[in-house]
Design goal:
This protein is mainly alpha-helical. Helix content is 76%, strand content 0%. The protein has a single domain, classed as Tetracycline Repressor, domain 2. Helix 7 packs across helix 9.
Length: 197
């Protein structure tokens, strides 16, 4: 059973977006081939072009969909019940779980961070910055008295995000480099709080 079958994606368009996420993560925008994406879904290239008229349109839809889903995941964590600490933990753990289920997305994001001129750079900037603003506003508004006094909030968020992204993008190296288990919340907690809250 392949990755797409495991995720039980229903519509052809959704399956194409899932396959594109994998192919773009593996080969980047330039290296990914529409024929390979179509083959992964079990259709031919002309059928893919019926749904997405160009590689750029498919790439844009792939990245935008992923960040929309991530935004929803983070929003659910922030709006959950509990203390600020509980909700920050929910956000951290949801982000980590989201990428654990989608390791190819982690690779795709890192690939675009490293690319100086890829088509996804503008998309990532337009999607990542608002997500960071969203989380930063949440922390500034509801947890400022609890986090380290001089902590640069945005940099601390990026430290936690980078760790989770790199871990999930590392594939078979994950356990050898990070050890077993998910320690994202433990690390985030130590970055943000001077004492246990």
């Amino acid at each position: 059973m392949n990755l797409l079958e495991k995720r039980k994606v229903s519509s052809t368009k959704d399956r194409l977006l899932e396959a594109a996420e994998i192919e773009f993560a593996l080969g980047g925008f330039d290296g990914a081939k529409l024929a390979d994406i179509a083959k992964r879904v079990g259709i031919r290239r002309p059928s893919l072009l019926y749904h997405f008229p160009s590689k750029t349109e498919l790439y844009k839809a792939t990245v935008e969909r992923a960040f929309e889903q991530l935004g929803q995941t983070l929003g659910f964590g922030m709006s959950s019940s509990g203390t600020f600490r509980d909700r920050l933990q929910a956000v951290t753990e949801r982000f980590s779980a989201f990428l654990e289920k989608r390791p190819f997305l982690a690779r795709l994001v890192i690939r675009e961070f490293l690319s100086g001129d890829g088509p996804g750079r503008a998309i990532l900037l337009s999607k990542v910055a608002p997500l960071l603003d969203f989380v930063e506003t949440f922390i500034e508004g509801e947890g400022r008295e609890l986090v380290r006094g001089s902590l640069p909030i945005r940099a601390a968020i990026m430290s936690s995000v980078s760790n989770i992204l790199l871990k999930n993008a590392s594939g078979g190296l994950q356990e050898a480099l990070w050890g077993s288990g998910d320690h994202s919340w433990t690390l985030t907690r130590f970055v943000f709080f001077e004492k246990e809250v």
